[in-house]
Design a protein that fits this description.
By secondary structure, the protein is of the alpha+beta class. It has seven helices and eight strands; from the N terminus they run αααββαβαββαβαββ.
């Protein structure tokens, strides 16, 4: 973690950029309580009012959460999650009263395939971590997760332990998102997906595709396949 004084910072925009950098680099991960304005002013070599303005704008941008007497924290996800919240399958299953079970099926770091490079805007030779996971409710298949993580954006994912907790839970804690694209579609189960979800090859599968970015850099792309009879409901 880099907390060395930065006397070269002079404007609130530079302070804002430095705070963003520390969040992006993981120095201040989601949920972290930030130092107070006085301490940050001393660290950055600027007036407290400069720090206040930078943090106020980051709060308005939805990246920080400020509470009186409780301090300022990095939000678990940006404010836009109030309009779109990335769901956690564990919570979905447990909220239904069922027992949740998770299994890591595949873990394969390597170069991104061409279709994924095009989808995520990755350069040639980009490294990704491919993970396949199965989420179950009361012992029955509920969701098959097929996920790719951009290792250039999140290199610590390569050494992360996904055997106990799924990558979605890890990602929500590890990095915020500034943009998300989501698609809902019906796909035909292939042998692999059908085998995991106890479905016949060619049977329609409710599928969700989601890609998230942080400050223009793709973080992860995931395909979520749901077992027969799944219903998705939203309320506004």
């Amino acid at each position: 973690m880099s907390d060395a004084p930065r006397p070269d910072l002079t404007s609130y925009r530079e302070v804002k950029a430095e705070i963003l950098r520390r969040i992006t680099d993981g120095d201040w991960s989601p949920g972290t309580l930030l130092p107070g304005e006085v301490e940050l002013a001393e660290t950055f070599g600027v007036a407290r009012a400069t720090v206040n303005r930078a943090m106020r704008e980051l709060t308005e941008d939805g990246l920080l959460e400020r509470r009186r007497k409780a301090g300022t924290r990095v939000r678990p996800s940006p404010l836009r999650a109030a309009r779109f919240e990335i769901p956690l399958v564990r919570e979905e299953i447990e909220a239904s009263g069922a027992r949740y079970r998770y299994a890591l099926l595949e873990r394969d770091p390597g170069p991104a395939p061409d279709w994924l490079r095009a989808r995520m805007g990755l350069p040639a030779g980009a490294g990704v971590l491919h993970l396949a996971c199965l989420h179950a409710a009361d012992g029955a298949p509920y969701q098959f997760e097929d996920r790719w993580i951009n290792l250039a954006a999140l290199p610590r994912a390569e050494d992360a332990d996904f055997t106990t907790d799924g990558p979605n839970e890890w990602l929500v804690k590890a990095v915020p998102f500034s943009e998300v694209e989501i698609s809902f579609l019906a796909t035909a189960a292939d042998t692999r997906v059908g085998g995991y979800l106890s479905m016949s090859p060619g049977e329609p599968v409710f599928t969700v595709e989601r890609t998230t970015w942080w400050e223009g850099q793709a973080i992860t792309h995931v395909r979520l396949y749901f077992a027969r009879g799944h219903r998705m409901t939203t309320r506004y």
